[in-house]
Write a structure and sequence with these properties.
It is built from 13 helices and ten strands. It has 323 residues and is α/β, with parallel strands linked by helices. The protein has an eight-stranded mixed beta sheet, with helices on both faces. Strands 6-7 form a two-stranded antiparallel sheet. The protein is globular. The two termini are 39 Å apart.
Length: 323
């Protein structure tokens, strides 16, 4: 992730755009209310369109809606807070969550943030909320899933500096132990296996083991982030989830559909594909899926968009106002 668009557009800007198009007959009056230029509008039309869909969802389901599309990592806490800073504690909050996983501690921080800003937290999974994403979802009051939605095992991931990426802890340990066993069996293979694991340090293997050992605590903390759960419910649910999502799961990409997640005791609601709510969620999600974002944090009034190095970038700019 090497380039970033950091724009916060005033709500008045996108509101005036939406109202302007609906009142095109009164063009002169509409222009008088504009707070952006035509070029700026064109450059940010895709964002305005997404934010309009967010606004429509909020009106339909009487809630605040934000989008978190990223790896779960510590620096995401700031971007996520920017989406939530003016949420009212009396409001329900819906979070569209799309992630392959990431940092477990960051996931716990993020779900606590979300719960602190709302009356009831709903996590919406359009496609995947894996590993740390599943951990985030464990702290919600409700988890909405559709025909394409998938949760997964709570398999901690570690940031490997040499690869500039996260890798599953169980995968790192398995690769290391397999190489060690091969060398014990045939010492002549040492140079080959040393080359394969040249970028993995011993301290990272130990960190992977520590992270796996800590997973039960992380599961319990995520479950307890939901303030509606009693202590006995937290203990009961944490025990089941630790068994099913930590101890029994060996494959990081293993699937956890809505029916199975519900059997484990999670508050999952499987939305019908034809339901209005799922149709609105999917229409919004496609606006992100078809873009070149590597990450996006967005609400009806704030936007943090990230791009891969070779991806095209939108123009940056700030809304201007006129009296």
């Amino acid at each position: 992730m090497t380039s970033k668009e950091n724009n916060e557009v005033a709500e008045a800007s996108s509101d005036s755009l939406a109202s302007g198009y609906s009142e095109a007959a009164d063009l002169e009056g509409w222009i008088g209310r504009r707070v952006t230029t035509p070029l700026f509008e064109a450059q940010h039309a895709a964002r305005y369109s997404r934010q309009d869909l967010i606004r429509r969802y909020q009106e339909s389901f009487n809630c605040r809606l934000v989008v978190l599309y990223d790896e779960i990592r510590p620096d995401g806490v700031v971007y996520f807070e920017d989406l939530l800073f003016d949420c009212r504690p009396s409001e329900d909050l819906h979070v569209v969550l799309e992630t392959h996983g990431g940092d477990e501690e960051a996931a716990i921080r993020l779900v606590r943030q979300a719960q602190a800003h709302c009356r009831e937290l709903t996590v919406i999974v359009p496609e995947q909320a894996k590993s740390a994403g599943t951990l985030f979802a464990l702290g919600a009051h409700r988890i909405l899933m559709g025909p394409t939605s998938d949760l997964g095992p709570v398999d901690p991931q570690l940031w490997i500096a040499a690869d500039d990426d996260y890798w599953p802890a169980k995968l790192l340990i398995a690769a290391y132990e397999q190489a060690a066993e091969a060398v014990r069996t045939d010492p002549d293979t040492y140079p080959f296996h040393a080359m394969l694991l040249a970028d993995v340090r011993a301290i990272e293997i130990q960190a992977a083991r520590d992270a796996i050992a800590d997973s039960p605590r992380a599961v319990r903390q995520a479950v307890s982030a939901n303030p509606a759960r009693s202590e006995s419910k937290v203990e009961e649910l944490s025990k089941v989830l630790n068994e099913k999502l930590v101890e029994e799961s060996l494959y990081h990409a293993a699937t956890l559909p809505a029916t199975t997640a519900r059997d484990y005791g999670l508050p999952v609601e499987a939305l019908e594909p034809s339901s209005r709510q799922w149709q609105m969620i999917w229409r919004l999600w496609m606006r992100y899926r078809m873009e070149s974002f590597s990450a996006a944090y967005e609400s009806d009034r704030a936007s943090q968009l990230f791009y891969e190095e070779d991806a095209s970038q939108e123009q940056n700019g700030d809304a201007s106002s006129s009296d």
